[in-house]
Every structure is written in structure tokens, then in C-alpha cells.
Amino acid sequence: MSRPLVSVIVPAYNHARYLPDRLDSITRQEVEDMEIVLLDDASTDGSADLLRDFAAKDHRARLLAQRENSGSPYRQWERGLAAARGRFIWIAESDDLAEPGLLRCLLDPLLRDDCLVLAFCESKRIDHNGNELGLMRDFHIPAAERRKWEGDHKWGGREFCLGPMLWRNAIPNASAVVFRAEAAPFPINPLGLRLAADWWFWARMVYGAHLHYQAHPLNRFRWHEETVRSSTTPSRFLWEASRVRLAILEKFDAGITARHQVSSRARHDLIGVCHDLDLAERIFEIIRWTPIWSRHIRQQPRLWLKKMVKILAGWGNG
Fold first, then answer.
1. Distance (Å) of CA 31 to CA 50, 90, 250
2. For 58-78, what is each residue's pLDDT tens digit?
3. How far is Cα 87 from Cα 207, in angstroms, rounded to an integer?
4. What is the model's pLDDT at position 231?
């Protein structure tokens, strides 16, 4: 059996409502040479039946169904990658949609340039009914930086990760990405993150390589109450963001300027959530041993934290 050009991995959990349109957007792609790896994570809404019916009708598809829920979408990713045979991978999240040209447009630069490990495109954000809410970059990228995202762009991995990727997950939706199968780092979630594992996954993938950005919005990223992101507290996100930023600094051996910038951001984030003392201490456990913090804070982190909370509580009462 010949190796397919691309493996389309569809991780599904209780998305029966969205699956017919999602699967249709996959079959309408302008690339025929694909396998479709369908994953069901013990859904209770009939998703597995829909996927089973689809696999019976499309010879390129096969279903891997779980009897027990894995508890994490990133475990689904790992199962899909382990089963994939294609040269390239597209993780097509089960509630998103794609324009027919997405695969063709993202495979094009990867086939032309061996230095690229991934290509990703702009996305339109949609609600649970499919209504367009705007471009993701307008939600995700500060206004002062958006001009750089209005045209196609080739990034070096270091430039990308110590630039836009240091401050936010600049690849916010896996459905907008196609990458080389051999470039996928394992394990996917070594930091045990609930929300930001993909941020660290992409950063490790592009280490020592290049990536391509396609400014045309070929992906439809669905944002609704059932997504992990929408159900995550700001406190949890800040804790995970701190972990990823520090991991990037270490991975790319960042200079003192980047370290000071992350230090300033971490302090700002910590103050913003200091009313949650347990969370603040968890954040601080991540950052306290890095050289960007002053010595007395590193040596007595909890004492400093308590003083800061007391001071800020006083401000609040004033």
C-alpha cells in the first residue's frame, strides 16, 4: 500500500451536530491523495455512529473509537499521529470547517521548500451556528502588529518563537495547519497542560526550521460554549502561559532582553490574579528560579507574595 500524501486526523467528542458539515468540508478538498483517520473519544451523542457511517462510504477513511474517554484532546492527537501514514498531517478539529482550497494552498509551499516544517493560514472565527465573527488576527493579534499578518510570510523558527509566539499562541487553531509528519514532537503534552499544549507543540516543531503563513482565511474556527478554551478560567490560562513562555526562553536560549520582557509580563499577570493566592503561588513556582527575578524574591518567594497581596488588598480598600 502506497503512502498517502496527507493524513487528515479528525478527533471528535460529542460533536454530532457539527460532524456532517465538517466531513463534507474534508471530502470537498482539492487534494485527493489522502487518508482520513477518524477518532471518537467515547462520545455519548451519536458521533461514533456518524463517523462509522462515513467510514463505510469513503474508502479513504477508518474509525478508531475509544470505549472510555481519554480526558484530553491532546491524547486524541497522539492516537491520531501514531495511526497516520501520510507524509503530511492535517488535524481537522471536528467542529471546524475549511474552504476547498485549504489543503492545496498549505501543501504547496511545503512541497516546494524542504526547509518548511509547517504551513498555516488565517482563520475566520465563527459561532455555534456558523455565523462569521471576524478574522482571528483581529481577536488575537494586537492592532500594532497586525500589518505583518496581512500578507503571506515565511518565518524562521527562532524569529517566530521569540517574536509573536512568545506572547501568545500565534497558531491558535490546529485546523489551520498542515505539517510534516516527521516533524511532530513527542510526547505532545510533556508539561501536562490543559489549554496551551498546542502552543508548546508548535514551538518545539519549528525549532531549527521555518514555517509559512498564508494570509487568506481558508479555515473556519468555531468558538462556542463547548470548547476547552471558552470554559477555561483566565487564572488557568495565565498559569499555563507562564509555563510555555519560560519553556520557549529555555528552548531557544533567549537573551537577557527577552527574559526581562517575560519577567515584566509575568509580574503583571501575577498581580492581575493575586486575589487567587493558590494560583499565584503556582505561577510563582514556575518562574521563581529563573535569573530574571531579583535575588530576594527568588530566596523568599512566599514572603514576597504575601507582602504583595497585602499591599494590593490595602489599595483595594482605599
1. 23, 12, 39
2. 999 999 999 999 999 999 999
3. 19
4. 53
Domain 6-222, CATH class in plain words: alpha beta
Please tell me the predicted confidence (pLDDT) of residue 262. 73
Domain boundaries, the chain: 6-222, 234-317
Amino acid at 71: G
pLDDT at 283 over 80: no
pLDDT tens profile 239-251: 788 788 888 988 9
Rounded to two decimals, the pTM is: 0.85
43-52: burial string, b at 16+ Cβ within 10 Å, e else: beeebbebbe
